[in-house]
Amino acid sequence: MxxxxxxxxxxxxxxxxxxxxxxxxxxAVEQLSRHYHQRPDTITEEQxxxxxxxxTLEKQLARSTIHIQLNGICFFFKTVLHKEITITKPLSRxxxxxxxILKPTEVQLVISLCPDRKHRFMLMTYYGTGLRLMExxxxxxxxxDGQRSTLKVVAGKGSKDRYVVLAxxxxxxxxxxxxxxxxxxxxxxxxxxxxKPISGSAITKAFKEAVRAAGVPSGCSIHSLRHAYATxxxxxxxxxxxxxxxLGHTDIKTTQRYLHWLxxxxxxxxxxxxxxxxx
Length: 279
Description:
The protein is mainly α. About 55% of the residues lie in helices and about 5% in strands. The chain has 12 helices and 5 strands. A hairpin with an 8-residue loop joins β2 (about 150-155) and β3 (about 160-165). α2 (about 20-35) packs across α4, α5 crosses α9 (about 200-215) and α6 (about 115-130) crosses α10. It is globular. It starts with a helix and ends in a 19-residue tail after the last helix.
């Protein structure tokens, strides 16, 4: 490990950044260094400006992805190199598309077509709790409180802990899973050992294969299960503030987006053409 990489890791941990954020920031600086084939501490502001133009115009990365790259690189320059940088970044605005919202029957079909039983348990838990994928991956057996019917999310987004409520069916599902697989540390562990969590790529690949087999709408990703959880709970009558806590949103405006994707929710619109006859 290079001294620069170690210094960046130390700065991330001194500030209590989430493990996922640390990895993302390190990857951003690593990609920058590979692009220019030189050490990151020798890269100039002019090169940085050209790099972000390259990400936008040639690679055509999403605005959110470029912002993540920018945050990681700025963190490195500010905390490790103690340099302030100003980047004129051509971040294009792209249309905000509504996510693919799976119907309950489609969710059930996709999960049923996942050939691995352990993966089916994990996908059902993902849909049944609304957790972020990385939150579920890093969930440990000790975080589940069967008496209170809760699951503790440790160091979720923003390094925040929270408790989510487990529905009776989800709790029963987890009890059945425990009886079959007897996890000791991580709830959904890797094939390399119970002391390691399952990889995100492994469960994502399993989901994609099940989606292809089910023939559901294109554009569906594993995150569609979280979106499905949110929309299906709203339709079932879950209060918005409760959904906000389950999803781990800091700002309720983030949760309110699901209302925009459900125009049929609570529609009080009058049928203005009722009774009209076209002459």
